Amino acid sequence: MKHFSLLAATLLPALAIAQPKENVPGNTATGIQYPKTKKVDHVDDYFGTKVADPYRWLENDTAADVKAWVEEQNKVTYSYLNAIPYKEKLRARITEIINYEKYSSPFRIGEYYFFSKNNGLQNQSVYYYQKGLEGKPEVFLDPNTMSGDGTAAVGLNGHSNDNKYIAYSVNQSGSDWETMYVMDIASHKQLPDKLEWVKFSGAAWQGNGFYYSRYDAPIKGKEFSNKNEFHKVYYHKLGDAQEKDQLIYEDKQNPLRYFSASLTEDERFLILGVSGGTSGSELWYKDLKAGDKEFKALFRGFKHEYDVIDNVGDKLLVLTNDGALNYQVVLVDPKNPGSENWKKVVPEKTELLQGATSAGGHMFITYLKDASSRVIQFSFDGKQEREIQLPTIGTAVGFGGKRDDKSIFYTFTSYLYPPTIYKFDIAGGTSEVFRKPDVKFNFSDYETKQVFFTSKDGTKVPMSLVYKKGIKMDGSNPTYLYGYGGFNINITASFSASRLALLENGGIYAEANLRGGREYGESWHMNGMLLKKQNVFDDFISAAEYLIKEKYTSPAKLAISGRSNGGLLVGACMTQRPDLYKVAFPAVGVMDMLRYHKFTVGWGWAVEYGSSDSLRHFKNLYAYSPLHNLKEGTAYPATLVSTADHDDRVVPAHSFKFAATLQEKHKGANPVLIRISTKSGHGAGKPTAKVIEETAEDYAFMFYNMGHKLIY
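Structure (tokenized):
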């Protein structure tokens, strides 16, 4: 059992609002005629600092004039992209490479095993189930039948302990909003239960129902932009209408908090997770065996992270960074939860304890060493039993299961190692290949290398490089540098079939493990957040400088890319060092650092970024906010901003305002465009066809602006 993890002030008065004007696009050298974007004289006062926001009107994403602006921008963007001579060849090649069967690791519910499978080019993976590992697979849920364009996505949320029912959710067009349903497993019949306005929730089953989290229905027309407040936990009894669901927990005094419910496998402990954002948590509990009626405090304060792995009788095994920046596993008595009473089961080490799962009465602890996985099997009393031998340096995920499981599954992958599923025998400690993908590509012609570069303040930062063997390091190689650097998220080796099109055309893929992540524990995270956020940008800039110095590439051949918090990264770095890159891909980025907390769940990021409602954080945010640091008359890299109309995580207004300002102030021959996907969200659940199309567009944009010839 693992605690369900949550994802990660009023507006200051305007001084003046005048009649709309129009900007004059600053870039005419490309021959691109950018749409004219009206401006308003809107100014906010932040502690005496006047900040203009002339494109404030673009925040109203459902307004007719904003929709018209989106259409005009897309016309210009797609006119440019579709004119690139080899874009269709790239699309065809990526389609060819990505067309292989893809499976998830199976997991067991009673006598059935569940897994997902994509035949190759299906827009969404299909869930299958079968009796035993030798049974015939049958379709359980096919999201491709739920929409005509492949934009409906499905997730399995949790199953009843008697193995009869499973809750699943459907989200449409990439939105975080989910509708939850229930299926009878044996009969494969959908029950009438339907739960709406669910967000960031699992289904924690107890008896004839389950706990889940939701918001109240949003204002009509503002579903994808209004601030989400007052998350609540409910209990749903099978067969009841949602209006009858029992409210289990709410906090009327703190509207900006997340709440989640989870249960230990034996249904003894109900765990309430509380978070004020993307870092720090509280845990409360009820001992249901003891008949607790009210939640009792387990861990309070939001200063640390806590995750319940499992219970051992009346005690709880907990993964935490409280007193251990690299994390530890402790045994906690809920009746005496103070840290002085903890028993250390798996003490902190120099390597990051990345995660802990349980199965078959054992724990599986994943460590991270220089962003590579190492997995060790422990007994519940902390005895190290064995290290699981992994195929090579890379990333291993899985290892979870039930207490009576004899074998479990995990997936191993790396940059040149397609995701391969292994079956692990718990008693014997042996692994065997269960499913291996058949990717039509000669991986032996390519290699991976890890290097360490020095950041601005002297910190050593790792970076992985992937390229074709024998490539000349003469500064002429088109290089795609990716980064994220935030929210405690580790960037580890992963496989991308579409990335192979970059490599076979002489490209180098570079991935930097920037501060702000958790690759080296909580200290690595803390040194890249709040008032130290600039360290992340310095790390990324130093990564680019290293690649240039070592002649992997040059400023004329370097592209930078990132999504979400990584989009902020790209936006900040292209405004701070526009001379260092030829191409920039800021995707679904947080670009307006002064107003991000005003929309949907943006308030939850204040623990990572700080808020402009605070003077010291305002000064820090204003200093690097991508939107506010675009300078008149500056030559910026060729830029393709990406966002989506249903992104209710990082609302598209961020990218709208950034692109409009960039087109206004940019001077030079490089195109600066924005691509606004329709019926798409922050990225999850995006149809395969759209992924292929957008990847082909990105690579075409990159190669074309670098003047690079393809092998096709």
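Residues 1-29 have pLDDT under 50 and may be disordered. Residues 64-82 form the longest helix (19 residues).
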